[in-house]
Amino acid sequence: MQFAKEHINRLFQAAKAMFMDLGITKTGLLTLVHDTLDANDMNDEPHVHIRLVVSRGVKSTPYQNPNVNIGLPLIVIIPEIKAVSPSVKTRGLRLATTWVRRGPPDVKDEQWNHISKATDVQACISANVMHVDEALMLDLRGFVKTCNSVNFFIIRGDEVWAPTKDNQMQGITRQKTIDVCRANGIVVKELDFSLTEVYGADEAFCTGTFPSQIHVTEVDGRKIGDGNCGAITKKIQELYSEFVRKDVERSREEILADISAPRDLTHLGIYTTL
Amino acid sequence: MQFAKEHINRLFQAAKAMFMDLGITKTGLLTLVHDTLDANDMNDEPHVHIRLVVSRGVKSTPYQNPNVNIGLPLIVIIPEIKAVSPSVKTRGLRLATTWVRRGPPDVKDEQWNHISKATDVQACISANVMHVDEALMLDLRGFVKTCNSVNFFIIRGDEVWAPTKDNQMQGITRQKTIDVCRANGIVVKELDFSLTEVYGADEAFCTGTFPSQIHVTEVDGRKIGDGNCGAITKKIQELYSEFVRKDVERSREEILADISAPRDLTHLGIYTTL
Amino acid sequence: MQFAKEHINRLFQAAKAMFMDLGITKTGLLTLVHDTLDANDMNDEPHVHIRLVVSRGVKSTPYQNPNVNIGLPLIVIIPEIKAVSPSVKTRGLRLATTWVRRGPPDVKDEQWNHISKATDVQACISANVMHVDEALMLDLRGFVKTCNSVNFFIIRGDEVWAPTKDNQMQGITRQKTIDVCRANGIVVKELDFSLTEVYGADEAFCTGTFPSQIHVTEVDGRKIGDGNCGAITKKIQELYSEFVRKDVERSREEILADISAPRDLTHLGIYTTL
Amino acid sequence: MQFAKEHINRLFQAAKAMFMDLGITKTGLLTLVHDTLDANDMNDEPHVHIRLVVSRGVKSTPYQNPNVNIGLPLIVIIPEIKAVSPSVKTRGLRLATTWVRRGPPDVKDEQWNHISKATDVQACISANVMHVDEALMLDLRGFVKTCNSVNFFIIRGDEVWAPTKDNQMQGITRQKTIDVCRANGIVVKELDFSLTEVYGADEAFCTGTFPSQIHVTEVDGRKIGDGNCGAITKKIQELYSEFVRKDVERSREEILADISAPRDLTHLGIYTTL
Amino acid sequence: MQFAKEHINRLFQAAKAMFMDLGITKTGLLTLVHDTLDANDMNDEPHVHIRLVVSRGVKSTPYQNPNVNIGLPLIVIIPEIKAVSPSVKTRGLRLATTWVRRGPPDVKDEQWNHISKATDVQACISANVMHVDEALMLDLRGFVKTCNSVNFFIIRGDEVWAPTKDNQMQGITRQKTIDVCRANGIVVKELDFSLTEVYGADEAFCTGTFPSQIHVTEVDGRKIGDGNCGAITKKIQELYSEFVRKDVERSREEILADISAPRDLTHLGIYTTL
Amino acid sequence: MQFAKEHINRLFQAAKAMFMDLGITKTGLLTLVHDTLDANDMNDEPHVHIRLVVSRGVKSTPYQNPNVNIGLPLIVIIPEIKAVSPSVKTRGLRLATTWVRRGPPDVKDEQWNHISKATDVQACISANVMHVDEALMLDLRGFVKTCNSVNFFIIRGDEVWAPTKDNQMQGITRQKTIDVCRANGIVVKELDFSLTEVYGADEAFCTGTFPSQIHVTEVDGRKIGDGNCGAITKKIQELYSEFVRKDVERSREEILADISAPRDLTHLGIYTTL
């Protein structure tokens, strides 16, 4: 299963931020996912996409205070067989910048990873109205941040530029793409940049758990590069496929062991037994 | 039924903002509410509180784009028998200011009236951690805006001060309280004010559909006035009770007629037949 | 000539803000306009639209500092015969909200009334890309402000709502429209409002020197009202036409006398002889 | 003594905001002021200016937490004989806009009325560096707010414009000037305005407890009006002098009775006995 | 004496920002500190904590303008014998996030290092009201910045994260802690992060001149790590103690020579004789 | 010709942002510049400064929409013989901080590189009013950003600090100065810093295409360093002169080849034939 540890950790951190005790350990939760796959006989399916959603469960009255919840949280696991249509992979994405902005973390922290998606859905509606595939979103200071359901990158010369991590979905594919680039000698900078630098980029692409990396052909009516998938984007797609292949080859036991392992601080000269 | 027209209008405006066609007219929706009350034999109950929640309904796949919705929206009507315990009415509310801020309308417009309540819930959690009844929330410019689930007012001298309508829940009780005050010669100002002006207020109270007006006894450890329900707050409670009594006495037919009536512009010398 | 005094005063105030001595009096400048109309034999033309643009004139070297200017400012007066096509008046305007924002007055004050129109042009380009007539622009706090080349109003119930004067072009037609409404018993509020309140408005219209008031039929794919010109908008158009007719009937002498008259403060009990 | 009630109330509200128990009643504090004047034989002096400063008093260690304070607050009363030199009254004030901004109330609320004057002093230094009398300060949104030690007004046509009360010193002379104008039929608007509207104003003046109203002759090198004290400013100075004369004629007993009186709500039909 | 050079330099830079001529050289000031220790016979005391506060001195009238100061600045040197109680060191700190924000440098630059502590004191009061040891403060964009009297760090995995230097007290212990970590192979990143990343951190600690590093056990009711002092925090405490030990072993002559030495730019190939 | 490729690329990126088709290739445009120099017999002049300005050309009516443009853009090439007077180089620049702020890229992106210079000109006017050479400008968060017509750097210890690239003119000399420093072992950090860190800097300098680097002697009345050109600034001037000398020695053919060359990605293991 792809990057199980990172997804589980992100879920637990978000639950803690929402003051929500999941009532289960990380390994317990992952075991539930495994059980679900088994129960649906989906272990050998090549294109299973899992959605794991947690809510506070039953309330004594429909009111926002978690104090009126009774009993345990509700855990929903949805495994779907899903594949990006090859035509989308080939034609790439057309984007347009929306008026909807990504807000600050003292209003709604993207790291809460919450299903309160009104902002994203409004941006998505905006994309529909503008007849493009995804809406490109700026932050409150006017810098480029993310698309409504996928993360965003540009390539200028031989450098990959990513908006800083804040105020956008903490995409695991986003982080892994950065890691893979750096491990292979491709420079990635996380910085503020403007739409002008997007229009003038040589390449651009989006990342998501499901589609990995898809190239962007057009933003606000300006063609990106020559309008096709660029050379560095292609290279990253290849490197990433290989990287994922290795990750998913791991056995369930390896993954479970990974999740329950303590921090290794021996390289700092610290022997810790948490 | 209390202020049915205002609640229905607010719902339809919010649905339009979310590009959501409810597939039903305003009178149709209100009739559904009436039917629900009939079906539950709740017409003569004195303390029925209705929650009316609308979602886009079934999706072909769990993805944020409204384009993947299939079929009609889902309409949920929850009638509850609910009364504020007299002791809460008597003891009033203790508030503390939270670090969570109300955001701007290009991020998440409170007028979407959406159930994406992550911001409000985080503020509510903050209130729980601080051991108070509700969290008082500031806007991004540092002015006092609202509580996490009720609207907020202060009284200084003989003037009622309300935060401006923006960036807070468009409370119908909030608006009706303002209307009732003005109709009875009590000055209400909608303006920006700071916590210092709250601490130094003579009285403070909160409004919600359910509790009408409840006085505030304490904010951030500072007692408001003498810590009891103030003279003007009591007066407003009396005026408001009478006002509601008249509204709920109206027959179902009167309410339905009110909802479907066109704008009356004859006082502007305009004869319109929309 | 329509609202000559207001246009001349706006120009002189802006010139003062840019530390620019026009080297001519207000009456002198208006006389130049009259001379231009005479020279072009345009006095009896019903649809003359005048553009009056002032620059600092010749520079000793192409550098931004006004200190390198030599000689007097350059005054350009362009009289054009121009009429809004009746079809535009009939079909109204389609708007979409752009990502381009109106900035604050410590960055670029709209009251400088400057021809530095990069912001407006970028918004206009955005409108072109979205295939609408004008771009609707928000301010940095996310509230609705203006269109890229015309001012914006909505009507909710029997009230006209206008964004506050700041951070938008100081349209003289905008101000005169407000004045005409108030003089005729139509309530106009200048306040912050959000897109949701635009989508849910009964009517909307734009104002400009040239088109006076044109109704808005659609914003971001949401139809406004029933998509036609509303009853109050029509009323305002009629009242405004009559108002303009009276203004343009004034003789050149009356207008010149008006421009050079001192403030009349006698109603305050002040007898001033500036 | 001039506006004793307002000064005392402002002090008590600020102390509450700083969670500081002054350990004395309002009438007690005013009596101390009277005693100080008596002890210094200053009762018949025409130009006594009183500074009343309160601190938390002695600390067990120099640390910011009020918990380490021991004993009662320290009350300092400084009566000074002080008069604005007639030449300043005659020549008026020259201002220049500083880079220092007024901050928001969740950072430092001007209503804390605190002697933490680093912001004001930095602006004052800026004025010294620019060789003007006072620095004009903008707020974080770029609108005109206040001078570094006095409040600021402009007059356009026959209207007085004042920046909104927020983010500036809650000057009692500022408020009383507004009250006096309104009581005498002079329109005062509290609103956001920009420097361009200052440069283009007919008149401008500053207010402070000590200098009452002084006209402004120049802002950022632009002459205001004709550079002299304007007709409306003069009128306000006259009206205000008369208003103050009546206030200071009150006996000590009248003032003390005024300070300890409860709110009068009889005009609202409320008979309160707090 | 610990980090004398850095403290003296910080003081002189701040005085320059406040346009304040201290009337003494850096070595002169340090000599005064030495003299004070000698006069109090405190040289061999192991726990002396020195506060060095400078004010403009005597004024001819209580007014904010430095121009009314007469004579030299006042220099106050307070040596105290002070030790963190071992129990605090053992139990660590409990924090809660306050509504009070750190402001921007054009309002009040934390680098002025000024005793205008109203913001900090208000945050401290907020901590008292919430019954925690220190208040955690966000900046105006909603990111975690500092505590009210100590600086703040978190540890995620094997990385130390510190808020960027801006808008917080320029803690010398903060900087030295970063230096010590980097010199010992511990990665320190200075970046924007949110409360969610604090709640999900493995460890957190605060720094101050006096307590060096103290671990944080709880933030907003969420336990940090397992609620005890973490392995990397302990390691940093050890490394830092050793680092300080070496610094304080230096003779007075070495410290004085260090303070008066010019910049050494020989490694850039520049031979400078300032 | 100095840094022709970078200037041409910046122009084309800006034109794309303004949705402007220049109707000419990069090499075509550079050839026009060469032709202009030839036509003016300026090839052997040592101090030729070229201004290359592009506008949309003729419009059918004076209106902001690019759709009313007819025909090709207008290209203006102004070669001037121009030299910084040696006295300016010797005496350095005096700066003062202006109230005018650099805005965000969703209002006016500095990368549009547009001649809409109202903001810069207002800052320049502010500098004139304050009797200094250039105005120092902050961004909306209060950090130091740029001067009105040149970029700004400070040197603290042995580090060069530059404001981050955003919200300021994308100076090519600015970038080349950074490149030259880094290539020669001088550390350059791009970060947010405040005026206090400017006042306390050891050195400061400005960069522009024309003057290269000029030292700053004074900011807001505070002397920088000892008021002369500092040792590192001098070193950078020498390194930069040598760097420019090599660049301008290149033949026209080399420069043209450089402009039309594709990205070289062979070091990434990518063989691209765009």
User: Count the strands of chain A?
Assistant: 11
Which range does the strand content of chain A fall in? 15-25%
Whole-number radius of gyration of chain A?
20 Å
Distance between the amino and carboxyl termini of chain A: 27 Å
Assembly type: homohexamer
Q: Biggest interface and which pair forms it?
A: A-B, 40 and 40 residues
Rough outline of chain A? globular
Low-confidence stretches of chain A: none
As a percent range, the share of helical residues of chain A equals 25-40%
- Describe the sheet with the most strands of chain A: 9 strands, mixed
- Give the mean pLDDT of chain A: 93
Q: What this model shows, in words?
A:
Six copies of one chain form a homohexamer. The first copy, chain A, has 274 residues and is an alpha/beta fold. Chain A is 33% helix and 24% strand. In chain A, the strands form two sheets. In chain A, strands 3, 4, 5, 6, 7, 8, 9, 10 and 11 form a nine-stranded mixed beta sheet that branches. Chain A has a two-stranded antiparallel ribbon with strand order 1-2. In chain A, helix 5 (172-183) links the parallel strand 7 and strand 8 (187-190). In chain A, helix 1 packs parallel to helix 8. The radius of gyration of chain A is 20 Å and the shape is globular. Chains in contact: A-B, A-C, A-E, A-F, B-C, B-D, B-E, C-D, C-F, D-E, D-F, E-F. Chain A binds chain B through residues 17-19, 51, 61-67, 78, 80, 82, 99-104, 106-109, 112, 114, 116-122, 124-125, 128-129, 140, 148-149, and chain B through 17-19, 51, 61-67, 78, 80, 82, 99-104, 106-109, 112, 114, 116-122, 124-125, 128-129, 140, 148-149.
